[in-house]
């Protein structure tokens, strides 16, 4: 009899395993989950799903709790931001589900794909088109800044089109490195971002805030108009050196057909002094957005296709410019160096007593949920003066045991 009872217990246990649903009941009640995988990453997978009540398609991000142990901060931050935002140019959270094993995040689908991938598929592309794209990004950034949110990782890969129609919305996504400011003038100290798009004050670790997003938009705008980034390097250290020099150029070969208004706006967004950098709302008032509609419809697509760097493997991708492009200095429109730049006899560029050769001591870590070209460092540059600030402990989020418990999470 004892053996028979054990057999029945075994059958019952196997039955429960077999009947265990792959998704929470409350999720499947309202959503049909497609087998179509939109993307995969270190922490989970993104699938397409359809709301049974409305027929609208959404993105379903499934995060494995075991996989994200030790890196909960990134997801917690992203959820905090997503719960707070609602704007046409920012990806919006629609519903959130949780089980003991995973978190299920339903957001806008953004089926139009990444910015540059779709741009390169176009038949033609003009300065007017670029102005429309930059304007949408700035509207999204302005909204985030109004809500005291600093994105800190703006780059083309984090700008997605809502759909594949002729005039889709461009939306900002991926808030894993974002920060919600407790007070308007909070100073952030953690070095984070993506090489090539990161602002100099982040690398110098002297404190940063909302202006870092404007610098990134300036890099994106520059790249949208010519296909390569304003700062480059053969390796990560030399790339950082270039950013910290604050010097970039408008080569005549690729910029002669682009308006001075565009170059002026780039200059204002890539202003080295963060306190003097233009804000998102000020940038939206720039005459370029009006004059671009009147500019000559010169097709920029060939230059962009030629210059846009081929992607390397994700672990090595740092979005640098092909060396041959940047060596063409025959005719350049030189940018003035910031007044804080001094050249010593050794040829090392210094800013405010920080030796940029020490930038190589940054401990770059892979932290992006879906890409490996994002870094987040809590190590401080070796200071050359005692005045260099250290990291603030307030820049980290303390993760509680039940780190997803929230009245906005739908019970299962």
UniProtKB/TrEMBL annotation:
Protein name (Swiss-Prot/TrEMBL): Kinase-like domain-containing protein
Recorded superkingdom: Eukaryota
Native species: Glomus cerebriforme
Residue ranges annotated for the Protein kinase domain, each copy included: 32-289
InterPro entries referenced in this protein's UniProt entry, alphabetically: Kinase-like_dom_sf, Prot_kinase_dom, Protein_kinase_ATP_BS, Ser/Thr_kinase_AS
Family: Belongs to the protein kinase superfamily.
Record keywords: ATP-binding, Kinase, Nucleotide-binding, Serine/threonine-protein kinase, Transferase
Binding residues annotated for ATP, in chain numbering: 61
MF term (GO), any: ATP binding
Statement: the UniProt record of this protein carries the keyword Kinase: yes
Keyword Kinase: yes
PANTHER family per the UniProt record, alphabetical: SERINE/THREONINE-PROTEIN KINASE (PTHR24347)
């Amino acid at each position: 009899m004892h053996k028979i009872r054990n057999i029945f217990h075994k059958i019952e246990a196997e039955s429960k395993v077999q009947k265990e649903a792959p998704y929470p009941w409350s999720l499947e009640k309202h959503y049909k989950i497609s087998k179509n995988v939109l993307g995969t990453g270190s922490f989970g997978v993104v699938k397409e799903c359809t709301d049974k009540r409305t027929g609208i398609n959404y993105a379903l991000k499934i995060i494995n709790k075991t996989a994200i142990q030790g890196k909960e901060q990134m997801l917690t931050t992203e959820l905090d931001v997503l719960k707070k935002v609602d704007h046409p140019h920012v990806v919006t959270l629609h519903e959130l589900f949780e089980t003991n094993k995973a978190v299920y995040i339903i957001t806008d689908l953004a089926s139009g794909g990444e910015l540059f991938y779709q741009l390169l598929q176009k038949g033609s592309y003009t300065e007017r088109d670029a102005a429309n794209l930059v304007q949408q990004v700035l509207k999204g950034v302005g909204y985030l800044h109004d809500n005291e949110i600093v994105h800190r990782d703006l780059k083309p890969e984090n700008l997605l089109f809502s759909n594949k129609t002729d005039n889709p919305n461009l939306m900002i996504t991926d808030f894993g490195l974002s920060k919600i400011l407790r007070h308007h003038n909070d100073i952030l100290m953690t070095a984070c971002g993506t090489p090539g798009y990161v602002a100099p004050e982040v690398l110098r670790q002297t404190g940063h805030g909302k202006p870092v997003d404007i610098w990134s938009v300036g890099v994106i705008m520059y790249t949208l108009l010519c296909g390569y980034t304003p700062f480059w390097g053969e390796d990560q250290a030399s790339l950082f050196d270039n950013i910290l020099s604050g010097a970039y150029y408008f080569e005549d070969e690729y910029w002669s057909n682009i308006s001075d208004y565009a170059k002026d706006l780039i200059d204002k967004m890539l202003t080295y002094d963060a306190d003097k950098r233009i804000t998102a709302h000020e940038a939206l008032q720039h005459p370029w957005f009006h004059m671009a509609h009147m500019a000559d419809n010169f097709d920029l697509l060939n230059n962009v296709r030629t210059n846009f760097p081929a992607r390397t493997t994700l672990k090595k991708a740092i979005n640098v410019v092909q060396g041959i492009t940047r060596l063409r200095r025959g005719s350049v429109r030189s940018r003035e160096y910031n007044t804080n730049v001094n050249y010593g006899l050794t040829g090392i560029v210094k800013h405010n007593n920080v030796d940029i050769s020490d930038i190589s001591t940054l401990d770059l870590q892979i932290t992006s949920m879906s890409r490996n070209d994002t870094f987040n460092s809590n190590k401080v540059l070796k200071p050359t003066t005692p005045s260099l600030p250290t990291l603030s402990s307030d820049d980290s989020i303390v993760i509680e045991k039940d780190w997803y418990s929230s009245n906005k999470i739908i019970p299962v």
